[in-house]
Write a structure and sequence with these properties.
- The chain is built from 15 helices and 16 strands.
- The longest helix is centred in the N-terminal third of the chain and has 20 residues, at 14-33.
- By secondary structure, the chain is α+β, with helices and mostly antiparallel strands.
- The chain has 2 domains: 14-172 and 228-317, Bira Bifunctional Protein, Domain 2 (BirA Bifunctional Protein, domain 2); 330-420, Anticodon-binding domain (Rossmann fold), CATH 3.40.50.
- The strands form 3 sheets. Strands 1-5-6-11-10-9-7-8 form an 8-stranded mixed beta sheet, with helices on both faces.
């Protein structure tokens, strides 16, 4: 076990790192265009943050959190989602006192959930998320959805559709809870033990159950859309108008409730419509009461989270991943042991000119150096040694065309940089 990664975790190997760097750059660009700035929160938080924020009736809290006691006997939890930590930071650092809205994003944020590893989700996975604090209008959700949808389609992903729903607010949701409980009352004993427990604490969570027998029962349950108050109806209607104006394909899905207790009004997912049909790439929504619930001032808020692993998985399925760039542009080969120092110093000179350069580190023969340069995909080989070196020149070979040229040693690094770039 010493040399095996824990179940549900995965190494990011050097040959995969370029994909993560590429996707993170795309995420940064998408968030920046919408005026969001990066935030980084700790990998672990006090457990109470998630008990109060995520909700003690959720699967995350009941079954999936990595929780432990530290040496000070404090209960600590590896963060199972990104929003609660962002809200805690928003409160602790008095970001609410600045000009609102406050728009932040996070990426490559490790998320930990103790569950059976799924397609595109591991026990340790990484999320890209955006959170907007201080915006009450449906333009907030429309902006988040538009930014995320544009980001995904900009990567080349096809056949995406936004699914939206409204789960109401503290004013209208109790009426729906009552209707739902009346419907479920005679059927609850046929449902799973988890749903029976949720029946009293939070009946809305029953709609999110993955058990087939429970899904069959709730299929004909009353819809929360029929119980919305006037404000929630207007908010939801305006969101639809905004998405239509933007030309974003969407469908109303009254069965989306999301797996977290803090959501109010809008909830949404982006769904694959073909290939891996029904797969939710991401989820998000509005959570107007969470900041106040965690000890801050009343603040409207909304956000989303999407797993980086799932994005990369879908890009791979659709053959949209970029090719791995060569690790080295120029390989500096030496012609004999007495040329090792000149080859080394010339390699450093190339790097000073921002050229990706490498040289022999293992004592290879000249023939083996050329083979190695070809294997690592070097575009050029610069040969240091022989009568060329005595004449003060460097021989540069184009590995694709086999063409060679001589460059003055004194200016070779600068000239090679011009050729490479």
């Amino acid at each position: 076990m010493l040399t095996q990664a824990p179940k549900g975790t995965r190494d990011m190997l050097p040959q995969d790192a370029y994909l993560w760097q590429w996707i993170e750059q795309k995420e940064r660009e998408a968030a920046a265009r919408a005026g969001y700035r990066e935030i980084r929160t700790p990998v672990f938080e006090h457990t109470e943050l998630f008990l109060r924020g995520v909700g003690d009736t959720t699967d995350i809290v009941q079954k999936e959190m990595y929780t432990f006691k530290d040496k000070g006997d404090r209960s600590i939890t590896l963060k199972p989602e990104g929003t609660a930590g962002a809200v805690r930071s928003f409160i602790e650092n008095h970001m609410f006192a600045d000009t609102l809205p406050c728009k932040v994003y996070y990426l490559n944020a490790p998320i930990f959930r103790y569950e059976n590893p799924q397609s595109g989700r591991l026990r340790e996975h990484h999320q890209f998320g955006m959170e907007c604090f201080g915006g009450r209008e449906p333009t907030v959700e429309a902006e988040l959805i538009s930014t995320l949808f544009g980001f995904l389609t900009g990567l080349g992903l096809q056949n995406l559709r936004v699914h939206i729903n409204s789960i109401g607010c503290p004013e209208c949701r109790p009426r729906y809870h009552q209707k739902l409980k009346e419907y479920l009352g005679e059927r609850i004993h046929d449902m799973c033990a988890t749903c029976q427990e949720r029946f009293q604490k939070n009946p809305l969570r029953i709609l999110d159950c993955k058990e087939e027998k429970c899904k069959a029962i709730v299929k004909d349950a009353p819809l929360i859309l029929d119980c919305l108050c006037d404000e929630c109806k207007a908010h939801f209607s305006q969101l639809q108008a905004l998405l239509s104006a933007r030309g974003i394909p969407f469908a109303i899905d009254p069965h989306i409730v999301r797996g977290l207790d803090y959501y109010t009004k809008t909830v949404f997912e982006i769904i694959m419509q073909s290939g891996r049909e029904g797969l939710a790439l991401c989820g998000g929504g509005r959570y107007d009461g969470l900041v106040e619930q965690l000890g801050g001032p009343a603040t409207h808020a909304a956000g989303f989270g999407i797993g980086a692993e799932r994005i990369l998985m879908e890009l791979k399925n659709q053959n949209l991943l970029p090719e791995m760039p060569a690790a080295t542009d120029v390989y500096v080969a030496n012609l004999g042991a007495d040329m090792k120092i000149p080859a080394f110093t010339f390699t450093q000179a190339l790097r000073d000119h921002s050229v990706k350069a490498d040289c022999d580190l293992t004592g290879r023969s000249l023939k083996a150096q050329f083979k190695f340069a070809d294997k690592i995909g070097a575009k050029y080989v610069a040969l240091i040694g022989g009568e060329e070196y005595e004449r003060g020149v460097v021989k540069l070979r184009n590995m694709a065309t086999k063409e060679e040229k001589e460059l003055p040693l004194a200016s070779a690094a600068d000239e090679i940089a011009s050729i490479v770039f």
